Amino acid sequence: MWADSTIGDMQNHLHNENSSFILLKALCLLGLLSFSQISFAEQWYHVELVVFEQLDSVSDEQAPVACVPSALFDPNTTNDMIQPAANKTLTGSASRLKKSPRYQVHYHQSWEQPIKTKANAKSIAINNSLINGRVRLHKGTYLFATVDLQLDRVTQTDDWSEVGGQRRHYLKETRRVRRDKLHFFDHPHLGALLSLTPI
Fold first, then answer.
1. Mean pLDDT of the 29-38 span
2. 156 has pLDDT over 80
3. Beta strands of the chain (E only): which ranges?
4. Residue 99 is inside which H or E element, if any?
């Protein structure tokens, strides 16, 4: 009878251990699934852009005859790729530029978007009466920004007619960018400030 009792205790012990092991495996699986979902969730960013003209620039650089690529999304639209947002990060910088006689701010806008891989990245249209262009953000190991911005004012030069078109100042640059940092894109006649803040 003692043997039966001992065997029963051992069976109960093994049953409890087996149940605990199954429960542990289930919890681990749930944890892995949750981590996977978090890992694949897209990180959204608050993006803010200021574009300005440098009025006292002295440069003999020829403005190219260029056509700015089109963009699919406007900062004021709302969908799963972009959301409108209030300006906040660069308000002080834009205000200082406006107060200076050396600069003229032509564009200041914010929006929210996820940053996708290069193959899936979408361009954001940057347009108003004087600025025409786009911003394209993508990620790899690092974050990257491409700006294509054109001042929609014809540059009067002696040789523009010889190349068969009208010259407009054009800023195009791709560079690595960091979150929570201010990035300055420079050009003899144009400038752009860009910030990316995770949300």
1. 45
2. no
3. 44-54, 83-85, 103-114, 116-117, 123-127, 131-139, 143-151, 170-177, 182-186, 190-198
4. helix 91-99
Return d(Cα 78, Cα 83) in angstroms, integer.
Answer: 5
Cα–Cα distance for residue pair 93/74, rounded to 1 Å: 23
Bridge partner list, 196: 47
3-state secondary structure 17-67: HHHHHHHHHHHHHHHHHHHHHHHHCCCEEEEEEEEEEECCCCCCCCCCCCC
**Nearest-angstrom CA–CA distance, 27 and 44:** 29
Between 3 and 179, where is the model more confident?
A: 179
Contacts (Cβ under 8 Å, ≥6 apart) of 55: 101, 102, 103, 104
Which pLDDT belongs to residue 146?
97
Q: Give percent of the chain with pLDDT exceeding 70.
A: 70
SS3 state of residue 16: helix
- Per domain, the residue ranges of the chain are 1-41, 43-198
The Cα–Cα gap between 65 and 62 comes to: 9
DSSP state letter for 167: -
Q: How confident is the model at residue 145 (pLDDT cuts 50, 70, 90)?
A: very high
